[in-house]
Amino acid sequence: MNEVFRSAANEARQKLPKLTSNQEAARAYRKSLKILSSWAIDREIFLEEAEIIRARFDAERGCQPAKAVRLIKEAKKELHYYTHPDPYCVAFMPGGTLFMRNPPIPMEVCFPDGDLPSDAPKITFNPDMSVSKKETGKSAVGSVLIDFTKKNME
């Protein structure tokens, strides 16, 4: 690719929002709990470790902005280090053990003549079993791409 195309592509990309240090700390805390849920299989162990993580975050609350930037960088490195190689996901979501185990049968198969009963469901479901709505951006109409490496639906 030439330089002109790269610069045009960079202009078209959506810019990430600039987060405050409080927002970054909240995201780091939430991500640390999600990573912890992949490692801790017992609820008691999870709660004990979650208290330790919360104490670490509370100990540095209200620090100077320069120290906050350094702590957030260290937190990101630590989160990367402790990331589970096969993270936990909800069983019926992409990558889970129940994903698409019993998908609903299409109405066209059940009623090939098109004569639907009055009590037939009028809603469609996405592969993650959420209700398909145009306004949410997730629509089951057409093909749906499931990325099993990232364990999400695009």
TrEMBL record:
Main location: mitochondrion
A Gene Ontology biological process term: mitochondrial electron transport, NADH to ubiquinone
Entry's localization field: Mitochondrion inner membrane
Membrane topology summary: Peripheral membrane protein
Keyword terms, alphabetized: Acetylation, Electron transport, Membrane, Mitochondrion, Mitochondrion inner membrane, Respiratory chain, Transport
Keyword presence, Mitochondrion: yes
PANTHER family, alphabetized: NADH DEHYDROGENASE [UBIQUINONE] 1 BETA SUBCOMPLEX SUBUNIT 9, NADH-UBIQUINONE OXIDOREDUCTASE B22 SUBUNIT
Protein name as annotated: NADH dehydrogenase [ubiquinone] 1 beta subcomplex subunit 9
